[in-house]
Backbone:
């Protein structure tokens, strides 16, 4: 028997051309759901002339690809630059647009809100943002199931952006904020068991682990070495790919590098990405000459080539929630050294496909990289084991589980509605 095709309203505070892991994931999720025949209404941030031109020029897959599906529709809500990160958007408040009116017109079977806390305004300490729970007014009125998808560790981000002093002052309120934001949804889902446990302790209910965060394992593959961006450079290369921001801990790589170089003199660190710390990273990297390459953003086959070319992928962030680039590196057959953080122990098995380093400990992080690069047999074994370790998180496998959860919630809603009639 054919499954019912769902009408899915998908709200996201981040989408192309704003480059984040959330943006990439939302696009992949919408495309997969469309391919299954579901009707998807994507509500996403508007790009306007308040943002740097280079943001709009990114060659990212986005609306044009999704518009090729007849079962797709979209709306771009008005935005302004995030107060602390001008290249990312924040929704204008509900005084400027209405999520409820959009949902009345679409009449979804289920509502999915990606990064609900960000859309509400937590990224800006409630200075900006929509100002109320997205989608909830309509969901309550019509008894439509609504879920929240957690991508990032919002609590850790607050600590990074506002500092320890402010965080200590705010910390007694954090469980209240988490509880208030999460309880408005029928379900809050997490792609990491560790992140789920952390937020459940903070009062996030109802909540559940659903491995929804996948990658395209056919796209990220060791064979992409054919796209090697530096084919005439045979130096051992360690690679970082991501946003150049405080919460990603990128400056720490500049502390790690000389410790590695002392043992492996020809080591090459490549930093791929962009962000508010670009100038600081470039300035600090100057003294290392050609030993560090600040590549900037990378897309398409070039990016695939970087993941396959690297000898070790490095991720010093302690705020990750099942980091996408870590999985992309593993799928490309590249061992990983990552800081021990929520979810990294679910991706990296020490001694098998990489190592986990003590958080914020450059000496330990450097030693883990040295241990791999100085032992060819270990490196070869880790490279061989990297890809199989992550194949269970291919997009199709993850999205099938996500789809099952959507059906469960719709079925429960239908049952409750029938019983109450």
Residues:
């Amino acid at each position: 028997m054919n499954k019912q095709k769902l009408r899915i309203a998908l709200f996201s505070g981040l989408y192309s051309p704003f480059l984040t892991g959330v943006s990439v994931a939302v696009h992949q999720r919408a495309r997969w759901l469309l391919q299954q025949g579901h009707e998807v209404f994507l509500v996403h941030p508007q790009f306007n002339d308040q943002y740097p031109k280079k943001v709009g020029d990114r060659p990212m897959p986005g609306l044009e690809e999704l518009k090729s599906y007849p079962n797709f529709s979209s709306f771009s809500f008005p935005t302004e630059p995030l107060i602390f990160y001008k290249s990312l958007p924040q929704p204008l408040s509900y005084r400027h647009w209405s999520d409820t009116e959009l949902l009345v017109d679409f009449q979804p079977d289920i509502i999915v809100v990606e990064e609900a806390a960000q859309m509400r305004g937590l990224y800006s300490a409630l200075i900006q943002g929509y100002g109320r729970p997205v989608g909830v007014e309509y969901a309550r009125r019509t008894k439509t199931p609504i879920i929240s998808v957690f991508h990032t560790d919002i609590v850790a981000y607050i600590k990074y952006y506002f500092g320890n002093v402010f965080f200590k002052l705010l910390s007694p309120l954090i469980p209240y904020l988490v509880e208030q934001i999460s309880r408005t949804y029928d379900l809050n889902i997490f792609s990491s068991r560790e992140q789920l446990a952390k937020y459940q302790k903070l009062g996030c209910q109802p909540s559940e682990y659903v491995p929804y965060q996948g990658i395209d394992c056919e796209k990220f593959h060791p064979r992409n070495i054919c796209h090697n961006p530096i084919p005439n450079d045979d130096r051992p290369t360690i690679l970082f790919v991501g946003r150049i921001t405080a919460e990603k801990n990128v400056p720490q790589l500049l502390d790690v590098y000389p410790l590695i170089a002392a043992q492996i003199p020809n080591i090459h660190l490549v930093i791929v990405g962009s962000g508010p710390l670009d100038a600081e990273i470039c300035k600090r990297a100057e003294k290392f000459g050609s030993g560090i390459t600040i590549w900037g953003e990378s897309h398409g086959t070039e990016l695939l080539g970087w993941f396959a070319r690297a000898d070790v992928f490095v991720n010093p962030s302690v705020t990750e929630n099942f980091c996408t680039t870590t999985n992309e590196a593993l799928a490309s057959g590249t061992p990983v050294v990552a800081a021990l953080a929520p979810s990294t122990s679910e991706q990296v098995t020490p001694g098998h496909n990489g190592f986990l380093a003590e958080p914020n400990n450059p000496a330990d992080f450097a030693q883990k990289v040295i241990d791999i690069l100085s032992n060819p047999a270990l490196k070869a074994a880790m490279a061989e084991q990297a890809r199989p370790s992550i194949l269970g998180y291919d997009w199709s496998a993850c999205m099938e589980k996500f789809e099952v959860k959507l059906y469960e919630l719709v079925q429960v809603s239908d049952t409750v509605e029938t019983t109450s009639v």
